[in-house]
Amino acid sequence: MANNDKKISKDQFQPIELSADKGEELSRPEISYWKDAWIRLRKNKGAITGLIVLIFIVFMALVGPIMNEYAFDEDNYEATNLPPRVEGLEWLGLNGHQSWEVQGETPEAAIENGLTGYEVDEQYLISSEIVEEPTEENNNYYTVEMTVDIYPAKGLQEENYWFGTDKFGRDLWTRIWKGTQISLYIGLLAALIDMVIGVIYGGVSGYYGGRIDNFMQRIIEILTGIPNLVVVILAIIVLDPGILAITIALTITGWTGMARIVRGQVLKLKNQEFVLAARTLGSNDTRILMKHLIPNVTGMIIINTMFTIPSAIFFEAFLSFIGLGLQAPIASLGTLIDSAFDSYRTYPYMLVYPAIIISLLMIGFNILADGLRDALDPKMRK
Amino acid sequence: MGKYVLQRIAYMLVTLFIIATATFFLMKLLPGSPFNSVASKLSDEQMAILLSRYGLDEPIPVQYFKYIAGMIQGDLGISFQFNNREVTDLITSRIGPSAQLGAQAMVIGSIIGIFVGMAAAIRHNSWVDYTANFVSIIGISIPSFVFAGLLQYYLAGELSLFPTAFWDGPEYTVLPTLALMIFPLAICARFMRTEMMEVLGSDYIELARAKGVNNSAIMFKHAMRNALVPVITVMGPMTVSLMTGTLVIEQIFVIPGLGEQFVSSINSNDYPMIMGTTMFYSILFISVILIVDLLYGVIDPRIRVSGGKD
């Protein structure tokens, strides 16, 4: 401390002339609520990563299906169960090699069985490895893992299926991005329902209060008592399983959480001075609600919407997975994962890609929502 | 308090009544009958016998009242598909595995989650915190069926540590429980972390420190107990996740539980079974919510349940 004192001489300082009008002047640039939130969001590495991942997935969902010439429902029985192959990325394992475990009395017999069973010519056999010696348990058979170059073996040297094909020979690349489109549509729909029905319902209920509020809250109480799954099952039984049934189920139950939050906030805000001022100036109820109250709740609305989106996406995938959602040949990430489950030991790539994409989508939305909550909700500031 | 409890139970009954009514009439709206697959093989008389056997020849309002009256007495009708057994009987025979899985996942998942959340809050902004955060984001984000697939592929398939599927002893419960408990774990960890951080910043913790209470006593006796109270509120979402979770997990691991049966009854248009299971799930869900709300008021006297909570 003492050293520092010596270095700074007195003439380095100058008194500021203080005039009356400058005392009130703001010395720092004005930062609006949104700018402030954006600055805080930008500092949150996780949220920004989530945002980038989401932008990438949205871009791919829109562009992916038109990046190659295959259609999502175009089956090709010449090209069933092909593993992924990408030109130039062979070193990553995307080389179109397929491995099977085959059995036989001798290793040679096992390979012979495999080649005839899968209709592959011997020249395409790349490698083979004994994985299990004969024991009593497996009838004294050898189990051999054989790897073949399946594309030329099927006479498809010219083709490249980037994510492989399914058991009908449909291109998984196109199907997966089409499925991602469905997930994004569901997410968007849930967000829209939340923001329209939820916000208006909650706003009206909170603003008018009294008997209207009481009545509207009782309806919500009953609706939240009904599990989402039950509503969707009822919708599916009456309509056919599909996007319409899921949309209806979301419309019936999806907005109650939002309505409760908005109502709580509006209840808190409606007795404040700015509302009184607006009323004194002659604003009617609709204007006060839409122009004065709702904008003050925007932060909460955005946060809540961001949490609704991933749960809606999960809900659709889950329904499709148990066979109550979308039906073939429409691809959704849930149906893709479901059909991959039949044979993922032999064809793991069918499960891996849709599983990775839905996980990334969910993680992206969740960490972005977390980041937005920290950025927009001042009470959550650490 | 007494009035509040009664009021809540009344709402619960109204909700159940609405669900039952909606379920019943939606079923009646459906085209076709459960005997569609055999209809062409039967004569008119045989069909009439079948219909009267299941009470389907009566006018719809009569059927409705019979259904509601039966339900009050715990009778949910007779299943069309599963060898004409009573729905109530089918549910009770299938509930065992589902309940066991659900309970294991809930108990183990929440206990681990609570400790993970506590550790994260105590070592705030350290690698413990970041790891816990990462685990909870992953747990909330990755769908249980994806997680179940991974477990099945690696732990059962590649490493052969546990059986791949079926239900034949305690070792068969390991993988399904793991797959099911990731969500309770994640959500508890998250909630516990937030609550614990708030509690640790409060005055009475400061006082305990000033008094010279040792650190572990502060954490377990003072902080943990208080932080645990709001964690009860996650029981609601947790039950829902376990309910929906068992549907997929039982399918993946081929477990003879209620969820697996529910899915197959939907696919075979077995109306009484669908209605019965729907009601069963609704009762379970609504009761859990009610219990959570009441418990919350009992445990934390600061929360006056009768006051508007929202």
TrEMBL record, chain A:
Give the lineage. Bacteria, Bacillati, Bacillota, Bacilli, Bacillales
Q: How does it sit in the membrane?
A: Multi-pass membrane protein
UniProt keyword Protein transport, yes or no: yes
Q: Which residues cross the membrane?
A: 47-67, 182-207, 219-237, 243-262, 297-330, 350-372
Q: What is this protein called?
A: Peptide ABC transporter permease
One of the protein's GO biological processes: peptide transport
Output the Gene Ontology cellular-component terms. plasma membrane
CDD domains registered for this protein in UniProt: TM_PBP2 (cd06261)
Q: What is its main location?
A: membrane
Q: Which residues form a coiled coil?
A: none
Which SUPFAM superfamilies does this entry report, sorted A to Z?
MetI-like (SSF161098)
Q: Which Gene3D superfamilies match?
A: MetI-like
Specify the species: Paraliobacillus quinghaiensis
Q: Which Pfam families match?
A: BPD_transp_1 (PF00528), OppC_N (PF12911)
Q: Which PROSITE patterns match?
A: ABC_TM1 (PS50928)
The source's superkingdom equals: Bacteria
Keywords, A to Z, come to: Cell membrane, Membrane, Peptide transport, Protein transport, Transmembrane, Transmembrane helix, Transport
Key word Transcription present in the record?
no
TrEMBL record, chain B:
- Family annotation (InterPro entries): BPD_transp_1_N, MetI-like, MetI-like_sf
Q: Which domain of life is it from?
A: Bacteria
Major site of localization recorded for this protein? membrane
BP-aspect Gene Ontology terms: transmembrane transport
Q: What GO cellular component entries does it have?
A: plasma membrane
Outline the extent of the ABC transmembrane type-1 domain: 95-296
Q: Which UniProt keywords apply?
A: Cell membrane, Membrane, Transmembrane, Transmembrane helix, Transport
Membrane-spanning segments: 9-27, 101-122, 134-154, 174-192, 227-249, 279-299
What is its subcellular localisation? Answer: Cell membrane
Query: Per UniProt, what is the membrane topology?
Result: Multi-pass membrane protein
Q: Which family does it belong to?
A: Belongs to the binding-protein-dependent transport system permease family.
The name on file for this protein is Peptide ABC transporter permease
